[in-house]
Amino acid sequence: MDERMTAAPARREPELLGQTVVVIGGSAGIGLETARRARAEGASVILTGRNPRRLEEAAVALGAMRTATFDASDWDSVQFFFEGLSAPIDHVMVTAGAPHYAPPLQTPLEEARRGLSEHLLLALAVARGAASKVRPLGSLVFMGGTGARRPRVGLAIASAATVASPTLIASLALELAPIRVNLIAAGFVDTPLSASLLGEELDRRREELRATLPIRRVVQPEDVAALAVHLMSNTALTGATYDIDGGQQLI
C-alpha cells in the first residue's frame, strides 16, 4: 500500500498562537466573528464595544482576556483605552462605525461632516493610540466598503469616505512601518448592521444577491473574519485594500 495513502495528515500550527488581538467593535457581527476566528487560531482577544451587556456576553462566550466599554467615535476614549493597555499587543481589528447613507443636498452640514470624516478620524485615532503598543510586524486592520465607489444619486457622502480610505490606509502603512496596516473593503455582508439598515427589505436583498452574485450566496461575517485573520498572520501584506463582496462589483 502506498505510504502516502496511510500517513496521518500533518497538524497545522495555529496562525496566531500566543498573540494578542484587540477587536474594536467586537461584540457582534464581523468583529465578533473575527475575535472567534482569532481565538481558534490560538490568540488571546481583547474586545471593545458600546453595549456593556452584549460585550460581556461575547467575552464570556469567547473566553476573552478583557473587555472595555466605550464609543469608538469618542477619540479621547480610544486614546485612553490604548494608554491603559499594560502589555504589548499584536493586532488591532476595527469594525466600529456605520456608513452614512443620506441625501447630500438635504443632510444638515454637521451630519454630513460626521459622515465624511468619522471613519477616517477613527483610523487616525487608532493608529496614534496603537503605534506604541503593537509589536513590530503586527497589524492594524480596518473595515471599509465597496458599494459607494461608483457615483450614484444620494450616495455622495458615503462615496467620498469610501474612496478616501484606501489612500489613508496606504499612508498609515508607511507612517507606522514595520507595523502593517490594511483595509478590508466589503460589499453586502449579512450582519445585524445590514439588518438594521435594510429593515423589511433585508430578505429581498438576500434573495437578489443569491440569484445574481457569481458565488451564488451571500457573504457572511465568517468570510470577512477569515480574511482579517489572514491579513494578521501574513507579514508580507501591508498598505493595501482587499475587496470581499462575492463579485458584487462585477454585476
Secondary structure layout:
Blueprint: H1 3-6, E1 20-24, H2 29-40, E2 44-49, H3 52-62, E3 66-69, H4 75-83, E4 89-94, H5 109-130, E5 134-145, H6 156-176, E6 180-186, H7 192-198, H8 202-212, H9 221-233, E7 241-244
Parallel strand pairs: 1-2, 1-4, 2-3, 4-5, 5-6, 6-7
Would you give an account of this structure?
The chain is α/β, with parallel strands linked by helices. It has one domain (16-243): NAD(P)-binding Rossmann-like Domain (Rossmann fold, 3-Layer(aba) Sandwich), CATH 3.40.50. The chain is 44% helix and 18% strand. The protein contains nine helices and seven strands; from the N terminus they run αβαβαβαβαβαβαααβ. It has helices spanning 3-6, 29-40, 52-62, 75-83, 109-130, 156-176, 192-198, 202-212, 221-233, and strands at 20-24, 44-49, 66-69, 89-94, 134-145, 180-186, 241-244. It has a seven-stranded parallel beta sheet, sandwiched between helices. Helix 4 (75-83) packs parallel to helix 5 and helix 5 (109-130) runs parallel beside helix 6. The longest helix has 22 residues, at 109-130.
Could you give a short description of this structure?
The chain has 251 residues and is an alpha/beta fold. 44% of the residues lie in helices and 18% in strands.
Tally of individual helices = 9
Proportion of β residues? Answer: 15-25%
Strand order of the largest sheet: 3-2-1-4-5-6-7
| Low-confidence parts | none
Query: At CATH's second level, what is the architecture?
Result: 3-Layer(aba) Sandwich
Tally the beta strands.
7
Quick one: CATH class? Alpha Beta
The largest sheet is: 7 strands, parallel
- The first-to-last residue Cα distance is 50 Å
Radius of gyration from CA coordinates: 19 Å
- Helix % is 40-55%
CATH superfamily: NAD(P)-binding Rossmann-like Domain
Overall geometric form: globular
Number of structural units classed as domains: 1
- Report the CATH topology name: Rossmann fold
Multimerization state: single chain
